[in-house]
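anyone seen this seq b4? input:
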Amino acid sequence: MPVIRVLAALLVIGALAGCGREAPGARRLAGSLGLPALEAPPDNPITPGKVALGRTLFFDRRLSPNGTMSCGMCHIPEQGFAATELATPVGIEGRSVRRNAPTLLNVGYQRRLFHDGREGSLEDQIWGPLLAANEMGNPSIGHVVERIRSLRDYDGRFEAAFGGGVSAQRIGAAIASYERTLVAGDSRFDRWRYGGDASALTEIERRGFELFGGKARCSACHTVGEHSALFTDHGFHNTGIGWRRGPPIPERTRVELAPGVFADLERRVIASFAEPPAGDVGRYEITRDPKDRWAYKTPSLRNAALTAPYMHDGSLSTLEAVIEFYDRGGIENPEKSPLVVPLRLTAGERAALAAFLRALTGSRVATLIGAAREAATGR
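predicted toks r here
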């Protein structure tokens, strides 16, 4: 199977070559310039068989009750393994999803998962979307296990990858193994900072990096190390976005009904079928600590140019809008982070920051997209 050979060659380190299901060297994935090596957990070492199986599961719509939704419907390869067409994606049967779909590029480096950090491992994380009524809509873990067992094209694949049949633990381990291969570093910034290529960044991009760590204060949360950079402190911060729960529905909204066909709908018409905004107090929902109200996880800024819209609710549509938001000092509220203050950037400084952020796109994203699509269409 060519896809397995491609992924084994491109995504997994040489220690995988010729290894068996539980080869000790398979715990370590190849890093990428600017990123550290990635460790797999001891109980789920990486193998090509697990990666290929997990990739198939990731794109299989039959894992939703009506056969319409897969993981890849909200984490779209061509959209930076995020969903860029709407502020928040649409789940099963058109149901509204409460938060923006974060990118899965470099997700294996995340210490906590979801915007509120409610899960700590990829193996466990996958069950949230599979069971959420407004995402993939499965009624239970057992239902998903039984569904996969009933699909004949999975016959023997779990046995080959794990030495045993379909189980909830192995489903999570397979999908997590695939997600850990979505490593995307080696950006132009990395080649400049970590690769010694003085010409990799333009003058305005270098100026943007100076601002990033200086006047703009971005690196207070989006940290940059001497030898690698994940562009996140893995923390949770209140910027005010969650406290202001979205703008009201305008008096009239123009809606495109078909290509080139528009209609102006009144607020009362939209309100008659639109779902009311769901409550969302961020990290507080997990910790129940009042200091965590409206705090959300610091995202990595790697590949940010590919993954608009931004913030946990997708309310800022461009990098420029994000920069302007922080330049204003966020939105005042009782729990706002003291790190978020007015910056008083000039128009040129804001432009330099945006240029720098666009230099963080990894060189291998196109390869990851190609491998994903080959798998998604070849099952």
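The radius of gyration is 22 Å. The chain has a mean pLDDT of 89. kinda curious what u guys think
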